[in-house]
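re: the backbone from monday

yeah here it is again, tokenized this time
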């Protein structure tokens, strides 16, 4: 089973080398690594090009934002399974892709997997700030404000071919909409790995301010509408409350 890993970069010179090392040090070797850069101006590509012999596809060109770049990466992927490792993030261990492959191989009917995630200090990925423990999926989970940690979501490439990629009309919640569409609406079979898969640096686009969070919450509501569905009365309220529990459990 070949796994395609996509990293999106833009002015990421302070973190991209950690991300690249994290992919290249995985003990699972049937990996296709794709980097899509948005014409960085800070020397990011100088670092990427140091590893060009070990990176299968490198693209550096203007794009229309994060989700447009992710769609570009998906269109280039040839693996059986596709996942993303953002340029701020690293795998939690060297066997993560082996765990992913093992989960898919355990049942041919499985179409997607997800696991747990920790948020770490921007300058020290070993310093954990909070934990996102996803838990097992239930059929009504999305109506209860649940979603899996999107950086841990790996899905068969055929699901992108069948259900489409990221909706670029959304600027903050396209990952939520994608998983809502695939898991809740189209009911792909997913499997939970109860392990920390990703270390995600704090301070990314999705968690920089309360104003960003409010805008993302509004886009979450739009995600349901785009799929011709209505959330429960308390769905949109419960979603941020579930994130609040991540802080309370860790404090």
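seq for it, each position gets an aa:
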């Amino acid at each position: 089973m070949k796994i395609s890993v996509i990293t999106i970069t833009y002015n990421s010179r302070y973190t991209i080398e950690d991300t690249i090392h994290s992919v290249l040090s995985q003990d699972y070797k049937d990996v296709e690594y794709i980097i899509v850069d948005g014409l960085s101006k800070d020397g990011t590509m100088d670092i990427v090009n140091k590893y060009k012999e070990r990176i299968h596809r490198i693209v550096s060109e203007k794009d229309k934002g994060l989700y447009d770049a992710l769609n570009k990466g998906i269109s280039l992927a040839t693996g059986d399974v596709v996942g993303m490792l953002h340029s701020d993030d690293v795998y939690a261990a060297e066997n993560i892709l082996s765990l992913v492959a093992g989960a898919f191989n355990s049942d041919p009917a499985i179409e997607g997997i997800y696991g747990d995630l920790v948020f770490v200090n921007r300058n020290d990925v070993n310093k954990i700030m909070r934990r996102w423990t996803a838990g097992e999926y239930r059929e009504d989970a999305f109506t209860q404000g649940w979603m899996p940690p999107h950086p841990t979501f790996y899905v068969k490439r055929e699901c992108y071919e069948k259900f489409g990629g990221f909706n670029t009309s959304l600027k903050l919640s396209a990952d939520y909409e994608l998983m809502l569409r695939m898991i809740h609406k189209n009911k792909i079979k997913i499997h939970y790995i109860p392990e920390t898969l990703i270390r995600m640096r704090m301070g990314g686009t999705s968690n920089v301010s309360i104003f960003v969070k409010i805008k993302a919450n509004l886009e979450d509501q739009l995600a349901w509408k785009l799929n011709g569905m209505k959330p429960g009365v308390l769905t949109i309220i419960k979603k941020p409350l579930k994130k609040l529990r991540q802080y309370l459990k860790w404090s």
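The longest strand covers residues 190-201. Residues 3-250 form a domain with the Spore Coat Polysaccharide Biosynthesis Protein SpsA; Chain A fold (CATH 3.90.550.10).
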